[in-house]
TrEMBL record:
Annotated SMART domains: RHOD
EC assignment: 1.14.-.-
Family: Belongs to the TrhO family.
UniProt domain Rhodanese: residue ranges: 123-217
Catalytic reactions of this protein: uridine(34) in tRNA + AH2 + O2 = 5-hydroxyuridine(34) in tRNA + A + H2O
Enzyme class: oxidoreductase
Keyword set, alphabetical order: Oxidoreductase, tRNA processing
Pfam family, one: Rhodanese
Organism the protein comes from: Hyphococcus luteus
Record-level Gene Ontology MF annotations: oxidoreductase activity, acting on paired donors, with incorporation or reduction of molecular oxygen
Functional summary from the UniProt entry: Catalyzes oxygen-dependent 5-hydroxyuridine (ho5U) modification at position 34 in tRNAs.
Protein name as it appears in the record: tRNA uridine(34) hydroxylase
GO biological process assignments: tRNA modification
Amino acid sequence: MSEIVVSAFYKFTPLPDFETHQAGLLACAEENGVKGTILLAPEGVNGTISGPREGVDAALRALKALPGCEGLDWKESYTDENPFLRMKVRLKKEIVTLGVGDVAAHESHERYVEPHDWNKVIADPDTIVIDTRNDYEVSIGTFDRAINPETASFRDFPAWFRKFREENPFKKVAMFCTGGIRCEKSVAFLRSEGVEDVVHLKGGILKYLETVPEEESLWRGECFVFDQRVSVGHDLAPGSYDQCYACRRPITDADKASPYYVKGVSCPHCHDEYSEERRRAFAERQKQIELARARGEQHIGVKQKADG
């Protein structure tokens, strides 16, 4: 088994004094050789961390000691190389940004569907199935019958849903996302909009791919993840995608063969999205990354993102 443990977690729970936990969590992680990102907000905690088994266990104990986090769940994977370069504990308004004010996301646990029941739910013709992820994530894989809202960010979801609801009658809603956090917030939002017959996939796509046999699966394609693996398939096996480190979108070998692809600077999806000044900055960053690698070091400018 690989030596580095990668743990992704979130918990919606009221944390009115969330700021007071920042220093203690950071100190615990750094003392135990743990790297990654933890987000704290009035609505709870979210993050992905990595490190040695004992260190990750210590950090998880500290997280479970937060008010309301005793039942914190997390997903684990293993890698030979730490996917994160440093440890950050950030204070935020929301642990996943929807931007519509207070919604009771901590009450959404009652609307879970277990992975082994998901196929039956989404096969129901009276149920609309909504993929709550962003368009670049949906583009490499999704479930049968799923609606793609074609959003660029999670903040776009409320406006999309309100418009969709005006134009499309429906009876029941089933939603899903990568690890569960966005659809848990989405369920709370729909309920605040008066939609009561709504459920979501417990543990998200990752739990489904981990537990449902491939021969029974209704998943098509790969699942984008927010670390250096870029994408995973069934049994969470590493996928076939790379990533453009300018725009963060997943890219294929064909994309990398395009004249618009310059490593670390642009790809066919973003070649016309940035100014020449930004391109020069990307090129300089890539140069420093290559120089650091030649010295056997890691360049701190490489960004990693917590799972959404």
